[in-house]
Design goal:
221 residues, alpha+beta, 3-stranded antiparallel β-sheet, two-stranded antiparallel sheet, 4 helices, 7 strands, disordered N terminus
Amino acid sequence: MAYADQQQMSTSKLVSIILVVIIHALFGYALVTGLAYSAVKKVASELDMIDIQEEEPPEEIEEPPPPPPDQPIEPPPVVTPPPIVAPPAAPRPVISQQPIAPPVIRPPVVAPPPPPPPPPPPPQRANPEPRGNPGNWANANDYPSRALREEREGTTSFRVTVGADGRVSDCQITGSSGHSDLDDATCKNIQRRARFRPALDHNGEPKAASWSSRVRWQIPD
């Protein structure tokens, strides 16, 4: 029990003892002075009515429990910041439009086509060109029979005029073989068999021109 509680109890007992002493003194005084029995009885009844109650000791105040040990401070939860909301766009000013005239449609400008390339220069051929092999125009099968029997040989030079159609229009002996039959056989076979590509003028047009060559008459073995 605490010291304060003991002190309070001693004071109560002391008060009680003093009251008892006073009562006994009064009682003795009443006996001495000859008070009537009723007075004594009244005092006794009053004495019985006094109920001295001991004061109850105050409740013990429980000491608060010791604070809990320091706990680690948890970091605050990560809070996602709210999305940035762009402020509403300002309303566009209303612009009164004047009536627009329809556009003028113009035809597209077409560039002129490039000029055609210049034509190639016309083919030019100053002299006729033989077609085929000229050696076949007069051969051993054309040998004159009399000259063959007499075993006559020789070389005949000639010049022919070739028309625009490529055919021989004229034949001239420019060098005799020494035998008229061999010369005659030369022009006869050339005029009959020779074919040419005619000569061309500066415009590429065929024209008449001359062509020269020779035939060697020789008895075959």
